[in-house]
Amino acid sequence: MFGCLVAGRLVQTAAQQVAEDKFVFDLPDYENINHVVVFMLGTIPFPEGMGRCVYFSYLDSNGQLLGFVMNGKPSAIFKIISVGKSG
């Protein structure tokens, strides 16, 4: 249903489903990620008028809301802002 891309890494398309409404991509070396691309694979569209929020989180954090994807916006590039990083 989703794909994820970090510059310099292979595309990930095997998200792990951790709850009925939550999918997770394992991003090793997450401390060095500045941007992430999340995209719909096009295999399963969302119901009309619906979309999904995209969060960046690590360990037990609640996560940083990055934005969303939906049928009319099936991909987006998100900037990661983490504690200790500037800009």
Structural class label: mainly beta
The parts where pLDDT drops under 50 for at least 5 residues are none
Span from first to last CA? 31 Å
* Average predicted local confidence, pLDDT: 87
Biggest sheet, spatial arrangement of strands: 1-4-7
Q: Tell me the β content.
A: 35-45%
H and E order: EEEEEEE
The beta-strand count equals: 7
Q: Give the CA-based shape.
A: globular
What is the C-alpha radius of gyration, as a whole number of Å?
Answer: 13 Å
- Number of H- or I-type helical stretches: 0
Helix content: under 10%
3D structure, described in words:
This protein has strands at residues 2-5, 16-19, 22-24, 35-40, 51-56, 64-70, 75-79. The mean pLDDT is 87. Strand 2 and strand 3 form a beta hairpin. The strands form three sheets. Strands 1-4-7 form a three-stranded antiparallel β-sheet, with no helix packed on it. Helices cover 0% and strands 40% of the residues. By secondary structure, the chain is mostly beta strands. Its main location: cytoplasm. GO terms for molecular function: Hsp70 protein binding; nuclear import signal receptor activity. It is found in: Cytoplasm; Cytoplasm, Cytosol; Nucleus. Belongs to the OPI10 family. It comes from Nannospalax galili (Northern Israeli blind subterranean mole rat).
